[in-house]
């Protein structure tokens, strides 16, 4: 067996034709500043080549890209990767139980050994699918397994006959993308225009508009579209929130009490508990229950297998989840650890595992356990490669690879490869000086004065494991929300405070659904002019969306192209320079690639031969500004674009574009490309793009920014930039609430609220509050011992 994975001439994205060797059977960390090429090496080179070789071995046929991204790779074994930017789950019915198969095991247990309530015994033998809400036999007949009932208020939608179709469907109902195309098809078939008022429609046309035209077009009707969107998650995020609030109503199903399960499941028990009761327990509590009761329960073999899986989930820091928890609500770090638990249970060896910052979302006290588990994978004969910035993780590694020295064009070089001890003496590295204490991250020595009369107060916070809390959050300062995983941080801020603020304020939050929690009370909002919720959810779902479209600068760029003399002479408008409009390639629809399904849930992407991978038609590519066409500009990094649009003597000069770009650079995103596709952007990058967008267009004070682990994916030097920006915001009279595990970020807060002491049923209390210095001296504080 080869002792090393040898890579020669790696050159994808910004990698500079580098040669590397990675030891087999060891733990290797790939580090470097954000945008230095870490993911390009780990995922786009090693994982993609490992996947390609496996598919070739399995007999799958596919085309080979004409442009190889390396010269040679030897010593590569079967490769498994869990990358944060591709593990976002969208199926709203997928839960922790279904993903881990523990839900299936419980269903088998209840079907085999369950005790039925005699009054609900219909004589039918129990079967596994009677305990699964996604099965026709197991789902509630009233809500069809959803747990909720949805209705639409038609009068609110169609009451004003003067409303034009465009105003109703595009502006109010937010028909976008494919939904808009289906609307245009409907209008063309029925002889309508989008400018036509509702009262001019015949009864037959109005009925078809409401409920669909029985398959004559792909337009399914407004009412079915809304209902399916609310039920199945097809209408997502802000759009779902707006529409459900304005026109829809969601009520808990009274027949199944919100469980989604049918009569058999609701009235069958084991040890006096229904399957729903067990699914709703925290993983730790369910594990404790099965361990304690297993001697008196039937199905010992099955129960022992479940306990093994639950033990692994507790070990990787998922004790605070429940089997009923929807997968789309998990963080990237939680999903990654869910995969890690499955790898441990499978007891595989001779595999190359590639992880993307596995410590994300973990408290300092929880990291040692995770590191030990990953080292156990290595001890079984596997190779583990992790893209990481965490100091604890790097110190535990057998081998370090540092890429850089900087980001984007100025990165992609091999700065170091070797042991951790040798790495600390590397003079070229941007990371090593922080590890060797030659350079330190900034830490506040004086704290902003807290005004006791200017507080945001939450009362009766009782969501999930919160213990009917009353919390006072100082305004005008930076407040950190700390606590171990599952202690109640997200329940307090994302689940309680944010929804209540949505009731009372205009909030810039494009991703969260509107949820009202009437039991909680919030006061002190009179001190806030506007609130910005900046989370890690994707900035768009379309593959043609990108930082340029999200921040709004692409509109200015397209107009700039449309105003050139060549465009004016040819009659080109701004739409010609849009991937989603007339300028998009007809074959790939602006996606730049054609995707081929090659089996086993895998896809191979090949550059579109019609557009050459540009995504644009030829006419759009022929127009240039200062010698650059539209694709060349989208391929620029933020830093490169600043130079291009910031030259006052150039025809491309635009101070508004530069303002947004400079803000992106300030939040550590100088390396990101203007046209980088949304699916390739991590959660941490998405959050910083959102922050830059708001900072670029807003000024003033008395604004509240709510952030969720903003340093995710950042190197030490990039974290330093972001911390300075956050301190600058509060210095201008704004407020920041940051949910965070990073001791450096928390050390720079003016006030910390710590929840705990444990996670799940052991959490939900306020265990410490005060300045970082006060928490250091507080014996009840867990985070206090890690603060700088």
Automatic annotation (TrEMBL):
PROSITE patterns: ABC_TRANSPORTER_1, ABC_TRANSPORTER_2
GO molecular function: ATP binding; ATP hydrolysis activity; DNA binding; nuclease activity
GO cellular component, one term: cytoplasm
Subcellular localization, as worded in the UniProt entry: Cytoplasm
Stretches assigned to the ABC transporter domain: 450-782
Gene Ontology process terms (BP): DNA repair
Keyword Nucleotide-binding: yes
The keyword DNA damage is annotated on this UniProt entry: yes
Keywords: ATP-binding, Cytoplasm, DNA damage, DNA excision, DNA repair, DNA-binding, Excision nuclease, Nucleotide-binding, Repeat
Family affiliation: Belongs to the ABC transporter superfamily. UvrA family.
Record protein name field: UvrABC system protein A
Source organism of this protein record: Paenibacillus albilobatus
